[in-house]
Amino acid sequence: MSLDFDLDDIIDWSLGPQLLLAALILLVSTTLSTWFLVKPSYEDLSYYKQQESQLKQELEVVARRAAMLPIAAKQIKDLTTHYERLMKQLPAQQELASVLAAMNEQGLNNHLTFTRINWGKRKPQQFLLKLPIDIELTGSYDDIGRYTQAIAELPRIVLIENAEWQRVSLESSTLHFRVNASTYQYVQERLE
User: Fold this and answer.
1) What is the pLDDT of residues 168-188, one digit of tens each?
2) Quick check: pTM over 0.70?
3) What is the distance between the alpha carbons of residues 126 and 191, in angstroms, rounded to a whole number?
């Protein structure tokens, strides 16, 4: 039996080979259209899905940041208020004498006798100028305690550092108190 297929004679073929040829043509055309038309669209779809996922993540980050804005604004406002309050506690140049006078007055109010109270050498520190105050006084332990508390309650910042005390004599309850205190001034321009 010889298989001689002539495409002009397709109409004369029996129904089985016609259906087989039609199925083959349909399969080839479907495969080719899928390969050339659908596959690039599918690749584009995959790319756009990946882009969508990335954009959703970016949107979540931005949304979280946006949700934090009121909290950050409140924190900035609180920090600004705190900063302004601290800046008001730093003495200006014209207030230094009154700070020393207030410290002296607190000592006298607490029945202390000053041996020495004077300014030390100024020390630049980043944006502040440290102003040391050397204090020596005598009095009772309780009076010295009340004095240090009164210093801490002054409207200007005064830090007490390196406190030393000793009895004036072995028989006496009076103490000799030596302390290095300091206050600070804000410096507009950074000191070198």
Assistant:
1) 888 888 899 999 999 988 887
2) no
3) 6
